[in-house]
Specification:
- Helix content is 73%, strand content 0%.
- By secondary structure, the protein is mainly alpha-helical.
- The termini are far apart.
- The model is unreliable at 318-344 (pLDDT under 50).
């Protein structure tokens, strides 16, 4: 039997793979069901057959022979452990990634593994989308103090940590890639998709501070991420600075974003000033209406009247508070039915807001006129206010 095994080893070394596979298979079959020595020899013949099959590119069949060999009780533990690693690699080569990854994990846990096998395991888990398992393997690699990682390994590790939600660990591994805008954008995008806009904002800000994400659209994105991530005051501060310094143009979109940031931050004075600047710039009814709504929510009653003075018909506007040209535009719009920026007809809620603001400012005549129009437009709250004025 020993002579037969040695003969097959020599044939295998000579490259006679098909003959070795055939002879080893026959020998293993003859020894099936024998005594302990026969079973140990059978395992060795199966291992030779697996080697021959692997050299012929038959990885799946080779892995199966090793699995059978490993299951024989008489195989010593060190040999069984070595065959476990070989089977894992063969499973992976055969495209059996999940099975191969499981076997490789068992081998690493039992033997302590080595850097090569751990990297293979990381790659496999990543290919399977098992990001947390891949991250765990990476942690063990870092703890083991393995040799320095090359650029490709750092990219893989960064991707694994990003996908598993560990963005701080991912960013520490960027290396030369830290100067690539796409890397920072991809990391922030992953954080967003993971439902963590606050983390996305922090990542984007790190890229900005590093001098990588500095284009105007990058600055706008940073502000939007801070608003979404629960730090709108920081967005407002940045936008105010960038607009003042000329890093961002004072476009309608950027002014609107600034107003939205201050509103979300509940910075009343800054928000109202921003909405007013935007409305003066656009002469858009929607923007004046937004200013009125914000002022109404915060009890800034005179601002409510000033804003609505750009919307409501001239006969219900305090002419001492509204520009004469604006009144003329409103009157012309009322006659023509225009709905452009300064001429869209007032809605019931506009009248309601004006009426309530007038009540608070102790201007009963204006309040009555506005509230009656609001009630006529179907605003149910208007009637209650009229009752309070003795007009019910």
């Amino acid at each position: 039997m020993i002579a037969s095994l040695e003969s097959l080893q020599q044939q295998l070394a000579a490259g006679d793979n098909a003959a070795v596979a055939s002879r080893a298979e026959a020998a293993a079959a003859r020894l099936d069901g024998g005594n302990a020595a026969d079973r140990w020899a059978r395992a060795l013949f199966l291992q030779l057959e697996a080697s021959a099959l692997a050299r012929q590119g038959k990885s799946a069949a080779a892995a199966q022979r090793l699995a059978t060999a490993r299951a024989i009780d008489e195989v010593p533990a060190p040999r069984r452990l070595a065959w476990l690693r070989q089977e894992a690699q063969l499973r992976l080569a055969a495209g059996q990634r999940e099975r191969g990854a499981d076997l490789l994990t068992r081998w690493v846990e039992a033997s302590g593994g080595d850097a090569e096998s751990r990297w293979l395991l990381v790659q496999t888990r990543a290919a399977l989308g098992e990001w947390q398992a891949a991250a765990n393997s990476l942690d063990r690699l870092r703890e083991s103090g393995s040799a320095s990682w090359d650029a490709e390994q750092r990219r893989l590790a960064s991707t694994v940590y990003q996908r598993s939600g560990r963005f701080d660990d991912a960013l520490t591994l960027l290396g030369d890639d830290a100067d690539s805008p796409q890397v920072w954008r991809r990391a922030a995008g992953l954080a967003q998709r993971a439902g963590d806009p606050g983390r996305a904002a922090a990542i984007w800000e790190s890229g900005w501070r590093r001098g990588v994400l500095t284009r105007p659209q990058d600055l706008v994105q940073l502000a939007e991420l801070h608003i979404a991530g629960g730090t709108p005051a920081r967005a407002g501060e940045y936008l105010a600075r960038w607009l003042a310094d000329g890093e961002l143009p004072r476009s309608e979109a950027n002014l609107r974003l600034q107003a939205q940031a201050w509103s979300a931050a509940r910075e009343h004075d800054k928000a109202l000033a921003a909405w007013r600047e935007l409305a003066n710039r656009t002469e858009n009814v929607a923007d004046w209406r937004q200013l009125a709504e914000a002022a109404y929510a915060w009890g800034e009653w005179q601002v409510v009247l000033d804003a609505l003075g750009h919307i409501v018909p001239a006969d219900d506007v305090d002419r001492n508070k509204v520009d004469r040209n604006q009144v003329d535009r409103n009157e012309a719009a009322q006659k023509t039915g225009s709905s452009d920026a300064s001429g869209q007809a007032a809605q019931g809620r506009d009248w309601l807001l004006m009426g309530v603001a007038a009540v608070q400012l102790q201007r009963p005549e204006l309040a009555r006129r506005a509230l009656k129009r609001a009630a006529a437009a179907g605003e149910s709250q208007a009637q209650a206010w009229l009752v309070s004025l003795g007009q019910g």
